[in-house]
Design brief:
The protein is mostly helical and about 200 residues long. The chain has 10 helices and 3 strands. A 3-stranded mixed beta sheet has the order 1-3-2. Helix 3 crosses helix 10 and helix 5 packs across helix 7. The longest helix has 17 residues. The two termini are about 25 Å apart.
C-alpha cells in the first residue's frame, strides 16, 4: 500500500471509515494535487505541526525527548509526532494508543520517508488529515468552512486551519474561538520565521 499510494490518490482512510460506520459522520473528501493547494497551507501546517519537516527523516527526536521529560514531570501529555508520522497513522492505522500501533506507525513512517518524496508526504497529509467533523483535507475545508477553493486559501485562513489540527472536532476554523485566534497569530508569526516551503 505504501508503494501504491506513492503514485495513486488515497481513496479513503481508516479514520474516515470508522467515523462513518460507527458514528454516521459523512465523509467530505476530495483528493487534490498539491499544485492546486495554496502554498500558504503547506507553510501553515509546517509552522504549526512540524518545523523541521523538510530536514528530518520522519522523527523529531528533540521534540520526542521534550515530550518525555514533560510527561515525567507530570505535565499535560503533548504530541511530538511529525507530519510523516501523522500521515502514516491516518493512511494505514486505527485510532488509539498502544505500543503495537506506535510500533506500526514507526514502521510505516520509515517506509514512507524511504519511498516517498517530502512533496508526496505533504500532499497526502493535506488531503487526508481530519480538518473538522467529517471534513478531510484541503479541498473539503476550503469549500465547507471558507466557501472557496484550496488554491485560494489565504495565509490567515490557513493559519486558522492549522490551529484546529490538534483537535479538529473541537475547534472549528469557520468559527474561531479566542484561543484559536491566539493560535492563529502565533502560527502566522512562525510562518514568517520559517519562510516559504520549497520542494525539489
Amino acid at each position: 500500500m505504501v508503494a501504491l499510494y506513492r503514485y495513486i490518490p488515497v481513496p479513503v482512510t481508516p479514520l474516515m471509515l470508522t467515523r462513518n460506520i460507527d458514528e454516521g459522520t459523512p465523509i467530505n473528501y476530495t483528493w487534490t494535487p498539491i499544485e492546486e493547494i495554496s502554498p500558504n497551507l503547506v507553510q501553515a501546517v509546517v509552522a504549526s505541526e512540524d518545523n523541521l519537516f523538510m530536514e528530518h527523516d520522519g522523527f523529531d527526536f528533540k521534540q520526542i525527548e521534550i515530550a518525555r521529560r514533560e510527561a515525567e514531570a507530570g505535565k499535560r501529555l503533548r504530541g511530538a509526532s511529525t507530519i510523516t508520522q501523522q500521515t502514516a497513522k491516518n493512511l494505514f492505522l486505527w485510532q488509539g494508543r498502544s505500543w503495537l500501533r506506535k510500533g506500526l506507525e514507526a514502521y510505516f513512517t520509515v517506509l514512507m520517508e524511504q519511498l516517498w518524496s517530502k512533496k508526496r508526504i505533504m500532499e497526502a497529509y493535506l488531503n487526508c488529515i481530519e480538518m473538522g467533523d467529517g471534513i478531510y483535507g484541503a479541498a473539503a475545508v476550503a469549500k465547507i468552512n471558507f466557501k472557496t477553493t484550496p488554491d485560494k486559501l489565504t495565509k490567515e485562513q490557513c493559519a486558522l486551519i492549522a490551529a484546529t489540527l490538534p483537535n479538529p472536532r473541537k475547534f472549528n476554523s469557520a468559527k474561531p474561538s479566542k484561543y484559536m485566534k491566539q493560535r492563529q497569530n502565533a502560527i502566522l508569526k512562525n510562518m514568517k520565521n520559517i519562510g516559504p516551503i520549497k520542494f525539489e
